[in-house]
Write a structure and sequence with these properties.
Layout (H helix, E strand, L loop, with lengths): L2 E2 L3 H9 L8 E7 L3 E7 L2 E2 L11 E6 L1 E7 L3 E7 L2 E3 L2 H5 L7 E5 L7 E7 L3 E7 L6 H5 L6 E6 L2 E6 L3 E7 L2 E3 L3 H5 L6 E4 L6
Antiparallel strand pairs: 1-15, 2-3, 2-5, 4-9, 5-8, 6-7, 6-9, 10-11, 10-12, 12-15, 13-14, 13-16
Length: 198
């Protein structure tokens, strides 16, 4: 994954607009409907296999989380906000269990991202500060292969109207979605992760 953090000054600006007192909590259960052994996570977990051999349901008590079907925040990912997910595998169409997760920090600042038609910030470019449900309709872009997130936390989707597989992006430079493991995924819509979701 080609990701580069912004300068310390920019990072400080993010921290000043982030609620540092916000704590997340997600509880994973071995079986559907919150049955069986459980594991509580307050921030992130790179490999859940050391705590549970399987996971069929979960409950988000506070905060927002990204969950992944592979260790180390790889593979398919899904966004969970506060709520109960009694049988998430059927809901998401996954064939595998959640293997890792990370909490998304609450953010209350501005949102800004530059999206590019080609890798390494090539081709057509658009600067975005709002949600977009269809890249083709709004920007005349048939694909997005790299981006630079200046402010905020975002979700990008492989289908229009925020459907299909998704990808979580925090501030930084993403020179190639293909090198990140999303070569077969066309990005067609995106939206901001807003503080009202928490």
């Amino acid at each position: 994954m080609q990701y580069r953090s912004r300068s310390n000054n920019s990072s400080a600006a993010i921290m000043s607009t982030t609620d540092m007192n916000m704590r997340g909590k997600i509880i994973f259960y071995e079986d559907r409907n919150f049955q069986g052994r459980h594991y509580e996570c307050m921030s992130e977990c790179a490999d859940m296999s050391s705590y549970m051999s399987r996971c069929h349901s979960c409950r988000v008590e506070s905060g927002c989380f990204m969950v992944y079907d592979r260790p180390n925040y790889m593979g398919n990912q899904y966004f969970f906000r506060k709520g109960e997910y009694a049988d998430y595998m059927s809901m998401m169409g996954w064939r595998d269990y959640i293997r890792s997760c990370c909490m998304i920090p609450m953010y209350r600042g501005s949102y800004r991202m530059r999206i590019y038609e080609r890798e390494n910030f090539g081709g057509m470019m658009h600067e975005c500060m709002d949600d977009c449900d269809n890249f083709m309709d709004h920007y005349r872009m048939s694909n997005c292969m790299s981006c630079h997130v200046m402010d905020g936390h975002w979700l990008m989707y492989e289908q229009t109207h925020y459907r299909g597989r998704m990808m979580y992006l925090r501030p930084g430079e993403y020179r190639s979605f293909r090198d990140m493991g999303y070569g077969g995924m066309r990005i067609m819509s995106m939206r901001r992760i807003m503080d009202s979701w928490y």
